[in-house]
Write a structure and sequence with these properties.
Blueprint (H helix, E strand, L loop, with lengths): L15 H4 L17 E5 L8 E6 L6 E9 L5 E12 L2 E10 L13 E5 L9 E8 L4 E10 L2 E10 L2 E14 L2
Antiparallel strand pairs: 1-2, 1-10, 2-3, 3-4, 4-5, 5-6, 6-7, 7-8, 8-9, 9-10
Length: about 180
Amino acid sequence: MVGCQGAGEADGGISTEVLSRTPAAESPLDKLAFMAGGWVPETTQTGKGFGEEHWMAPRGRTMVGMFRLAEPDGTMEFQELTSINVEPAGVFLRMRHVHGAEMIVKPSEAEAQVYKLRDAASLDGSSATFDAVEHTRNALSVTYRRVDAQTLELTVNTSSASGPRKQVIVSKRVRAGM
């Protein structure tokens, strides 16, 4: 944020004192901490453009993530802002795409995609599946799964006229979450 600087940050350090002021209320999101950190899809490592995903650690009743995808020449294709929130009706993942450096919202993407956590009670700290609720453009579900400490797998199940399709994106850790 422009103009925002906390104690201990003037020299480039991270102020953990500020983070420690936020109470760590127990929530189903604690078991989603495996997603926290920076992740680079393996396809990025083979020269198919540049993608990266970053998730903040759960704090309170929310978790925030972002993804960006650039063309091989560095031109921004799209950015995605994602939030996971504990709400009275369950745990919801919402994402919104914006395109290009101008952050244009396409008319077909005017509404945020909404998914609901399948079963919060069965979270095991290494995977989570969110089922489509609305505006998901043929996506049926998204699953985040920790393969190991350095690998996060995202599986997107979709349906189309040609039948079901599964897209698996394997990412490697580039930094730990905070």
